[in-house]
Design brief:
CATH class of the largest domain: Mainly Alpha
Helix content: 40-55%
CATH topology of the largest domain: Triphosphoribosyl-dephospho-CoA protein
Strand order of the largest sheet: 1-2-3-4-5-6-8-7
Mean pLDDT: 90
Shape: globular
Number of strands: 15
Radius of gyration: 28 Å
Low-confidence stretches: 225-230
Distance between the termini: 61 Å
Length: about 575
């Protein structure tokens, strides 16, 4: 533990309520508020344990540095920051940034930090051999001669509004550079958003799509953007972000114009646009504000698309995005469906937010990690399947094998979603293929036929428990069920789910309906055919006499008897996935 005269530097785990309160109160007396942290350290008096200084970091950013007046000028700040740098180095952060007040510049500069950007109330400094210089060199490599302009967008997701803005801006310059925000604090990942923008701008020869960085609209330069907080702090961050753009980003691209869309609904983005108009011209950068694309007298907005997705209205969302974005929406729906299944609580014998069900090798965190890992698989499937022709079966199989490896690596070998990988993978491929072929009215017939076609081309396994059970008990296995086009799911389970949306227990009841009808090979493998049949009868009885208490009692029994209806879990997830394709 580092020592300095009569003081110690100690870690203050913020998960401990007493520590958090102490830190919050100390920062408040110094005009700061506690931000999200990976690590926080405090300088405390060795005898009284009174907190006299503190600071922490999130990822590669040092934040919330404060020192009591009694320790200023003693060198304690440098000691504290050196301690934080040591901790960050141990976590692999060798290029460190700090967001701080201008009055702290000397402290950080004495430790080798350089100022990247400044405003009246904030500074961004950085140490390390790489960082901003590397990003500037990347931008310089993209620079072309002529009149150059830039757009910075989050594209969460990329909409027809974004596409319209790019198209209109591209008409006014020789070269347009679209920088996609890199921060992963959005519904869609930075990788997904970058790919969406590239696909949606591919038809424009003078447009170059650039990946973003932590030097433009990020947790370092503009953290308020991601919580939409309009405040004095946000104004300082706006100044800082624009200072870095004007002095580093735009010159690297030779940009003399920055394009923005009008912002009637978002106060913070509107403030950012207004600040641009007053700040950037001072650096020789013209700001051009273009009117937003409107449909039915409403601006086309990514926030509206996200709201439609969350409300299960895919068809409405579809009208607001280019076709190149649609596969990413479908992949998100697949991931979200698996999360809905996991979050559904209580569930008999299955992992949920309360317990691990009849599983000793998996829990909520492992299941969540598995779902997050499969997201990129669903995205790749969706993109290659958005076509009027189905992908080659051999390609789908090889992608599935790789996805299973990734899943097992993420879960340390635990088979969390092998069944869902198959069924949801088929569903995603069929959905994107169908969206490329038909409109609303013919969706489900085409989707079901596509699932059946793909499944019919897939070879059966001779090794799985499901195959052995199918042959022994003459029940329908996962592959045969898919070869039917999931007709029971569409005609019974999805129909029930749609027709009972007013019932707050509809998700639980739909799960019970599936459990009462499905010959779940997972259950048969665990406890035998007879007990599996009894489970179906018990599920129907509970559905007809539903209560949460009954579900909890069934869960306790299933845990005791090692029953886990994993097949039913996969099917309720598919039901959730298909629901947004219903005409609302």
């Amino acid at each position: 533990m580092p020592m300095f005269n009569n003081y110690d530097i100690v870690e203050m785990p913020l998960s401990v309520k007493r520590n958090r309160t102490t830190v919050e109160n100390f920062l408040a007396t110094n005009g700061l508020r506690l931000d999200d942290m990976d690590y926080y350290a405090a300088v405390v008096d060795r005898e009284s344990y009174k907190m006299l200084a503190g600071g922490g970091f999130k990822d590669d950013i040092i934040k919330c540095i404060a020192v009591d007046d009694s320790l200023r000028g003693t060198g304690m700040s440098q000691q504290l920051i050196s301690h934080l740098l040591s901790q960050m180095s141990a976590q692999g952060h060798n290029n460190v940034k700090v967001f701080t007040k201008p009055g702290n510049a000397d402290i950080f500069e004495s430790l080798g930090f350089k100022t990247l950007g400044k405003s009246s109330k904030a500074l961004l400094l950085e140490n390390g051999m790489t960082g901003l210089s590397s990003y500037i060199n990347y931008l310089k490599s993209l620079r072309r001669n002529g009149m150059n302009g830039i757009i910075v967008m989050n594209a969460n997701p990329f909409t027809l509004g974004h596409q319209y803005l790019v198209e209109e801006a591209a008409k006014q310059v020789d070269n347009l550079y679209v920088i996609v925000v890199a921060e992963d604090k959005s519904l869609f990942t930075s990788e997904e958003r970058l790919a969406m923008v590239k696909a949606g701008c591919a038809h424009l020869d003078n447009v170059t799509v650039c990946h973003g960085s932590s030097y433009i609209i990020s947790a370092a330069t503009f953290p308020s953007y991601f919580i939409k907080q309009a405040s004095d702090a946000a104004n300082a961050q706006i100044e800082l972000d624009l200072d870095i753009t004007a002095r580093h980003i735009a010159p690297a691209l030779g940009a003399t114009v920055r394009f923005v869309g009008t912002e009637p609904g978002d106060e913070l983005t509107h403030s950012y646009n207004e600040a641009m108009k007053s700040t950037l011209p001072q650096y020789g950068i013209k700001v051009v504000e273009l009117p937003r694309l409107e449909m039915e007298r409403r601006p086309v907005s990514a926030s509206v698309v996200r709201k439609m997705l969350n409300n299960g209205n895919l068809w409405e969302a579809k009208d607001l995005v280019p076709g190149t974005t649609l596969p990413y929406l479908v992949a998100w729906l697949a991931t979200n469906a698996l999360k809905q299944e996991l979050d559904l609580t209580p569930k008999p014998g299955l992992v949920d937010t309360h317990d691990n069900g009849a599983h000793s090798d998996m829990d909520y965190d492992i299941m969540s990690k598995s779902i997050n890992t499969l997201r990129s698989f669903f995205t790749k499937l969706a993109v290659i399947s958005y076509s009027k022709t189905l992908p080659e079966t051999s390609l789908l199989i090889s992608m599935g094998i790789e996805a299973e490896k990734d899943m097992l690596n993420a879960t340390n070998g635990v088979n969390t979603h092998r069944g869902a990988l198959f069924s949801m993978g088929l569903a995603v491929v069929a959905a994107c293929h169908t969206l490329a072929k038909v409109e609303i009215d013919g969706f489900f017939d085409c989707w079901s036929n596509s699932v059946a076609t793909i499944a019919s081309l897939m070879p059966g396994s001779s090794k799985s428990h499901g195959v052995n059970i199918k042959e022994k008990y003459n029940v329908t296995g996962a592959l045969d069920f898919a070869r039917s086009g999931y007709s029971v799911l569409i005609n019974d389970w999805l129909k029930y789910y749609v027709n009972n949306q007013a019932d707050e227990a509809v998700k639980h009841k739909t799960l019970l309906l599936i459990m009462s009808m499905l010959d779940d090979t997972n259950v048969i493998h665990r406890v035998g055919f007879d007990r599996a049949q009894k489970m179906k009868e018990d599920s129907l009885h509970l559905l007809e006499n539903f209560s949460i208490e009954g579900l909890e009692q069934m869960n306790r029994l299933f845990i005791e008897q090692n029953i886990s209806p994993g097949g039913a879990a996969d099917m309720i997830a598919l039901t959730f996935f298909l629901f947004p394709f219903i005409i609302q």
